[in-house]
Amino acid sequence: MTKRTDHKKLFWQQPVELLNSRREKWTLVIFSSVFVILFLLFFQPFGVNNYDPTHRIDGVFLLATVLFGLVGGFTLAIYEFWLAPVLFRRSTRRAFLSRLALSLLILASVLFLFYNLLGNFHDWRLKSYLEFIQNVTLMGTIPIGITLLYLENRKVKTAYERSQNSRRTDARIRLTSENGREHLALIPEQLLYIEAQGNYVFVYHQESGITRKSLLRTTMKKLERQLDHYAIMRCHRSFLVNTRRVGKVTGNAHQLQLHLSGAEDTVPVSRSYIPALEAQLDVHPV
What we know:
Domain HTH LytTR-type: 188-283
Transmembrane segments: 28-48, 60-84, 96-117, 132-151
Number of strands: 10
Order of helices and strands: HHHHHEEEEEHEEEEEH
Oligomer: single chain
Protein name: HTH LytTR-type domain-containing protein
Pfam families: LytTR (PF04397)
Distance between the termini: 49 Å
Radius of gyration: 26 Å
Largest sheet: 5 strands, antiparallel
Mean pLDDT: 87
GO molecular function: DNA binding; phosphorelay response regulator activity
């Protein structure tokens, strides 16, 4: 009996690494808002059409549906970005489940109030409120569940790719020049970044703790193909960076700067490459 109890405690105390980043929270908020609008619009559940099978979508119904989705999304955003971090500092399974349950309760309460504001409080009753909680829970569980499955799948995929990359750390990268006569062999962890200069590229790498710069006559596109299976990605028109050497990210939404361990200079990130880089590193500028 004691072992079973201990096993249960351990199960509920396991950490949950979901909805921690701003990106993940915005994914939940936006998807839930869009889902609610489309679900109410096309399925018209819970008597939103006054149980009239001949009911057609008109401008008023469309506006009310969109407002419900926006109010729900705004409420969820406030909860996820401001309330949840204060109320649930621990991220165990028990705390995460409580966090989701409270979000549905708050959503139901706010939407019930908004519904009555639109209808001049025509349905301001406890029975209706309890039904609202039930209906919002049934409807809200769907987008929340889909979002969590998507985020978990993405984390598993990222972890797998990183494990595959780590297996290659002992294999040497062989960089070849345009004419095939010049070669540079490196262990992946030695490579810092690559900078394009006209028809040449400078390869910045470390040897015995010393940062060195090697010159190759080749193109960035050719190097990208050679490095496709490693944790090295394009971050700028003129730069490739080893994401495993990134120690800190600074800057703003227009341009980031990567600080690499072992490199004195920072590496710029163009705006168009920021989303892919943030997804790869799972970090945000400071």
